[in-house]
Fold this protein.
Amino acid sequence: MGNSTLFILKFWAGMATGSIAIIADAWHTLSDSLTSIVVVVGVKISAKPADKEHPFGHGRAELIAALIIGVLLSVVAFNFILEGVQRLQTRELVNYSTFAIVATIISIVAKEALAQYAFMVARKSGSRSVRADAWHHRSDAISSLVILAGIVFGRHIWWIDGVLGIVVAFLIFYAAYDILRDAMNTMMGETPDDELVKQVEGICKSETLLELRPHHYHIHRYGDHTEMTFHIRLPDGLSLFDSHEIATRIEYRIKEDTGIISTIHMEPEAMFHH
């Protein structure tokens, strides 16, 4: 509702002044409503439990939602560039009204407030899609701030409206890049951070006197559910039963201490002496 109201306000101001930058910024604001719907759907789907078709749950629905938001941001940014270039070609001077200034200020305050709230929710929930949505709100606030600066300092410069559209486009492209990179890295699998590696090494040492030398880590996140695989080395003469017993103890401890489901691949020591 808030985004729709801001859209009407800014679109009205843009039409009244003939500003391409303000009109494009209005459409950017409206896109927030669309991405918010995507976030709500993504979070709802990710909360569904695991089933036969999705044994690891539906947690990655949030990542898909973040990808959709990133793509939408990129499309909006590309449109900003097109509009900005077109305005530069026409060399038309825009006369910004007081109404346009007031509408832009209202947008900046409202969008930054929404961004702060979304960032707070993202910190508490750890939701990537909510964080992506927060960045969308902030990018809208920043773009409106840039436009306000142009209105105040360059209202008599013919090229200011076109340049503002292009500047805002690059701000949005950066936000889209950050969101897409974060989501795609998670979907493709990650290596664990140093703190988790040290924790796993400590668990291995506490569960057996053997030097297991854990290595080849991979992390796969599915929302709240996380899977980890890694390798350990065991003496050649150790029985399959004893090897499995050691690996199972370590897997159980990792689950108890970190909440991560781990799968351990066992390698014979002789493989590394040839």
Notes: Strands lie at 215-222, 225-234, 261-268.
